[in-house]
User: Fold 2Fe-2S iron-sulfur cluster binding domain-containing protein from Paracoccus fistulariae.
Amino acid sequence: MTAHRQITRNDADAIKPLPIRLTVNGEISDHLVPPRTQLAELLRDRLHLTATHLACEQGVCGACTVMVDGRPVRSCLTFAADCDGIEVETLEGWQGDELMDRLRAAFTRNHALQCGFCTPGMLATARDLVERLDTPDEARIRNELSGNLCRCTGYVGIVGAIREVIEERDALRIPPKSPPALPRIAAQGFAPFTARADEVASAAPAALGETTSENGWTIVRRKVTLDHPPKAVWTHFRDLPSVARCLPGADLSETDGKTFAGHVGVRFGPISARFEGAGEFTADDATQSGQVTGRGKDRGGQSNVEGQLAFTVHEGETPATSQVDVSFRFRIEGVLGQFNRPELVNGLVDYILGEFVANCNAVLSGGEIRESKGVSAWAVLRAVIMGFFRRKG
Ligand code: FES
Ligand code: FES
Assistant:
């Protein structure tokens, strides 16, 4: 009974509206906001600044990006009650802004204005990049833009537009701006700490390597260790159906050992697709190396993928283990084009390779392949695998 009264009193305190004053697009306004009100809600519902879009509402898509005190923030993850005294800029505030006018023109020239839903967040981020980046470096732009998701087409036009406006800014000899310093206020209720080296997890990753992009291709290089000698691993790897069984979601419908056809199911959040494809496989026993090339297309024709996989089996640190050098090179066009970004692919590829290695080790030990738990990370594996399939017909 006592505990019930205590909870009720705390809840009542927790929902008491708080007074805030903020400056939005140069205009000061005062508000009383319940603690759980998002900044995005305040902008849209009270100030009617509806260019700020809400989509995922969990900080993933970037549609709600606005500038707060000169830095881009997710207005869906920002409590309005924490915004007392801040300055906010939204798309509406950049009417007549020279940089934004140049960006709008460049977006139009590059066919980068597409569905309109992601566009306000894209433009807010683009303006920040144009103000801040010291060169029109494509990899840097793609990296920094990776927090803004496009679900329709892709980033080629958007990246091209941003590069053009940075070049225009350079031609006008306008130097890049540094972002404003972050306020040095200690976070309440959280004690900062520095990780101690002896507390860092010591488990070795299943794979080591890098992910880069080059002319629209994503290139993934990894070194994978298997707990079996090279001869056994090579025998397993040159047997295409056996390897395909270790790749969750992949299903070979036909193969003669040199060519193959099959399908792969892809699921990543709300995106799901089934790719049909085919490809070729070559293996060289002398060098214990192989190559798979292929091309695929999903049923609805919304995404195409093409790719090559090369691998070589070496002796590992002991004769009882193997090291496999793997290199994927793939390109995805369409709905799943977001997987062309190394920032998205990189961490997940390691997770996926870990599962693949576990399955290979299990098969080589005479055990069973693990059941796929259906986590979304599989989608990247499936997308990568589709690089090895070529569309039938
Ligand atoms: S709505 Fe804020 S990041 Fe998606
Ligand atoms: S153009 Fe808006 S989601 Fe792609």
About this structure: The CA atoms of residues 102 and 165 lie 7 Å apart.
